[in-house]
Structures are given as structure tokens and as C-alpha cells.
Design brief:
Blueprint: H1 3-10, H2 26-48, H3 50-59, H4 65-85, H5 89-107, H6 115-143
Keywords: Membrane, Transmembrane, Transmembrane helix
Membrane topology: Multi-pass membrane protein
Biased composition (Polar residues): 1-16
């Protein structure tokens, strides 16, 4: 373990952080804030255009879209804020991961769309998978003792 890892892991936990896994170095803070602000922006866009998002989810065959779309958007917003502020980071990362794991295969099903839409859906699918990977890394970081 490097000196930096030792310093990070020995830092006492702060209220709401769930664990002693805290890294307040500028690169970590900036990275969390950039990641979280992008996700929060997506969630807010969804919430501001609920009717359109619900209609799109209905067209994709999502059951109970009128309930699931606002719930999923709220999950994404809450999770992104938790990651950005590093408050309850495991729960926050789990919320974002749940959103991405549920939404990605349903809404970005590139394998079942026409040729014209395939590239866009594949790009969105791969972007979400990349975000899911980063979210898993945040979860792992938050889980360190």
C-alpha cells in the first residue's frame, strides 16, 4: 500500500460518509463533481421533460413507464448528488448503478432497432456502460475500510 492509500484509508469517517474511505484530494473532488454534475444534468432533463420521456419509454415497451420514469430519474438525481457530495457514497453509487443497469438495455437496445437508429443507440449503450463502470469504481472506493 502506498503512502497515499494509507493516508486515505486512515482518515476518520465524517458524518454521512458511511466508511473511513475518504479522499478529499483536489483531483478526486473534481472527478466526483464532474461525474455527478453530468448525471444530475441528465436526471434534471428527464424530470423537466417527463411527458416526452414517458412516451419514449412506452414506445420502447417499458411497463408502468408513468411510474418508472420519474422514479428512475429521481434515483439518478439522488445518486449523483450523493456521489458529488460524497454523502452516503455506497448508497449513492448503488442508486446510479441501479438506474444504469435497468435503463441501458431497455432504452438503448441497439440490437433490435432499425439500421438508421443502430449507431445512435449503440453509442448511448456504450456511454452508459462506461458510466456504469465508473459507478462501480466509486462503489468500490466507498466500500474501503
Amino acid at each position: 500500500m502506498s503512502q497515499t492509500d494509507s493516508q486515505v484509508d486512515s482518515t476518520p469517517s465524517r458524518p454521512g460518509s458511511e466508511t473511513g474511505a475518504r479522499d478529499d484530494s483536489p483531483p478526486s473532488r473534481i472527478g466526483r463533481l464532474l461525474f455527478a454534475s453530468g448525471l444530475a444534468s441528465l436526471a434534471i432533463q428527464n424530470l423537466r421533460n417527463l411527458e416526452g420521456r414517458i412516451a419514449y419509454a412506452d414506445a420502447k415497451g417499458v411497463p408502468a413507464a408513468d411510474t418508472l420514469v420519474p422514479a428512475a430519474s429521481g434515483l439518478l438525481l439522488g445518486g449523483s448528488l450523493g456521489i458529488g457530495l460524497w454523502k452516503f457514497p455506497r448508497a449513492a453509487a448503488a442508486s446510479v448503478a441501479t438506474f444504469l443497469a435497468g435503463v441501458t438495455p431497455l432504452m438503448h437496445d441497439f440490437w433490435s432497432v432499425d439500421e438508421e437508429s443502430r449507431d445512435q443507440e449503440l453509442t448511448s449503450f456504450l456511454q452508459n456502460m462506461t458510466l456504469l463502470g465508473a459507478t462501480i469504481a466509486f462503489f468500490k472506493r466507498a466500500s474501503r475500510n
